[in-house]
Amino acid sequence: MGAAQALVGRLEDQYVGGGMETWQTLASVVGPLVIGCLVTWWVSRLYYRKSSEETRELRHLALVTIGSLEAAGLITVTYDAQGLPHRVVLLSGTATGAGTVSGTLSASPPSSKP
Prior knowledge:
single chain, 2 helices, mainly alpha, two-stranded antiparallel ribbon
């Protein structure tokens, strides 16, 4: 019975008792996990900041385009309370034109191959 108790005591010290090996194992698992989380957070923050700037620029260009088309009389725009375009109504029209085409057509029989 003494040998079994000694074995159980060693196992408890190694895996349950909080020996130094347990803390090293825990640190080797948690440390890289925390570092990976921080790197992922940093990269995603940079990505979303850049995409937010691009979205802002595209929104500005769309508003400039809509304003230019409205000023040219090609579309009619209604705006909401914040001054953003609410509804765009495309104006339609008809274009007519006339033209003439002339030319000469010549045809010859295909050459026979020997």
